[in-house]
Amino acid sequence: MKIFKFGGASTNSFDRIQNLGYILQNHTDEKILIVISAMGKMTNSLEKVVEEFYEGKNEEALRLFQKVKDYHLNQLKYLVTFQWQKATNQLTDFFTEVEWLLHDKPVKDYDYYYDQIVCSGELLSSTLISYYLNENRIPNKWIDVRDVLRTDDTFRQAKVDWDVSRKQAREKLMPLFDNTNFVITQGFIGSTDENESTTLGREGSDFTAAIFAELMNAESVTIWKDVNGVMNADPKDFQEAVTIDELSYKEVIEMAYYGAQVIHPKTIKPLQNKDIPLFVRSFFDLRLTGTVITQKSAMLLPPMIVYKRRQVLLMLQSVDFSFVEGKPTTFLYEVLRKLNIRPNLTQNTAISLIICMDDADQKIQEVSQEVSEIFDVSVQKNLTLLTVRHYSDAIIEQLSANKEIILQQKTKDTIQLLMNLS
């Protein structure tokens, strides 16, 4: 049993879906669970639907969702012929799930509606691909991941119930392989015990692949991407970026923690638990072996460079000039935990705390309001956080030249610079 995960860049056009089929034709004698993401930037489009709906702009939300519908129905025309009506009916069922919400008024919090609406992206894309493959003599079974992955109701950051999910995978998913070598499901989403849709965190399809690998004792996981493998930096940020042949779980966890976008941060632990190798391979060039990630520590790694943009610096000073250690710090971190905020960088002095976090106006306002009795809060926006592992003085000088350094933290292996690039 292997797990293949195909991201949005692998499914956003007829040619790429056709190429997905070519990849699978090279593995017809293997049993593979195929995890599919939403097409292209569809998650972004659905997020806009949620925003308009939550602001009470139902007509605009419905108009934007109509674009989502039109896109998928148009793709269907190119992908499926003989079972077009059956496929249309299944897509329509998913459209109806969302439209039923959009005609109403929000009475729950934003994150709840986010999950109920945004989850449709994966359901729609996986349906299209399943029908396309079946029509092109690549037999497969489709399953709604919400019937398998049980989670709690922490919407947008749902936590997996491993025991229930393992039982449901054994009872509902594994039997499908008795009649086919390929089973298709969705990444990113799950369901509560009350059948409410949940999501596992942005870009969570990688995590889904790892979850199933652990649940099903998979031989390996392969993430097919539009890059040659894991690189030491984004080439758009660092022209000298190179592909790395081998990495350890530990190194990838560190990279993900600091914001590298190649692998979802939660992906590694389930694989590490059972020593399941993770391959990151090129969707376009099957001759390339890509990157393999295992327990083995890699030697002589180049500098690993990660940029996080749209950062905000919160500067919190105690209102009565008392020390922040102890109860004030504990209280602040409880507020951050409650609001699902993970600081990207923290620092403190005797009477102040400094927190770098992703820019999110609503959550910044909520933090400020929650802590206003004990802290004065000031905010600096439009910052960039640069993290370099295995750094050298030369590379830091190169990357920070002519930049305003707001904050710096440094250990033996890692340096972080919060910079104002404007």
UniProtKB/TrEMBL annotation:
<dbReference type="GO" id="GO:0009090">
    <property type="term" value="P:homoserine biosynthetic process"/>
</dbReference>
<feature type="domain" description="Aspartate/glutamate/uridylate kinase">
    <location>
        <begin position="3"/>
        <end position="282"/>
    </location>
</feature>
<comment type="similarity">
    <text>Belongs to the aspartokinase family.</text>
</comment>
<dbReference type="InterPro" id="IPR036393">
    <property type="entry name" value="AceGlu_kinase-like_sf"/>
</dbReference>
<dbReference type="Pfam" id="PF00696">
    <property type="entry name" value="AA_kinase"/>
</dbReference>
<protein>
    <recommendedName>
        <fullName>Aspartokinase</fullName>
        <ecNumber>2.7.2.4</ecNumber>
    </recommendedName>
</protein>
<dbReference type="GO" id="GO:0005829">
    <property type="term" value="C:cytosol"/>
</dbReference>
<dbReference type="InterPro" id="IPR042199">
    <property type="entry name" value="AsparK_Bifunc_asparK/hSer_DH"/>
</dbReference>
<dbReference type="InterPro" id="IPR001341">
    <property type="entry name" value="Asp_kinase"/>
</dbReference>
<dbReference type="GO" id="GO:0004072">
    <property type="term" value="F:aspartate kinase activity"/>
</dbReference>
<comment type="pathway">
    <text>Amino-acid biosynthesis; L-lysine biosynthesis via DAP pathway; (S)-tetrahydrodipicolinate from L-aspartate: step 1/4.</text>
</comment>
<dbReference type="GO" id="GO:0009089">
    <property type="term" value="P:lysine biosynthetic process via diaminopimelate"/>
</dbReference>
<comment type="pathway">
    <text>Amino-acid biosynthesis; L-threonine biosynthesis; L-threonine from L-aspartate: step 1/5.</text>
</comment>
<keyword id="KW-0547">Nucleotide-binding</keyword>
<dbReference type="GO" id="GO:0009088">
    <property type="term" value="P:threonine biosynthetic process"/>
</dbReference>
<dbReference type="InterPro" id="IPR001048">
    <property type="entry name" value="Asp/Glu/Uridylate_kinase"/>
</dbReference>
<keyword id="KW-0808">Transferase</keyword>
<dbReference type="GO" id="GO:0005524">
    <property type="term" value="F:ATP binding"/>
</dbReference>
<keyword id="KW-0418">Kinase</keyword>
<keyword id="KW-0067">ATP-binding</keyword>
<keyword id="KW-0028">Amino-acid biosynthesis</keyword>
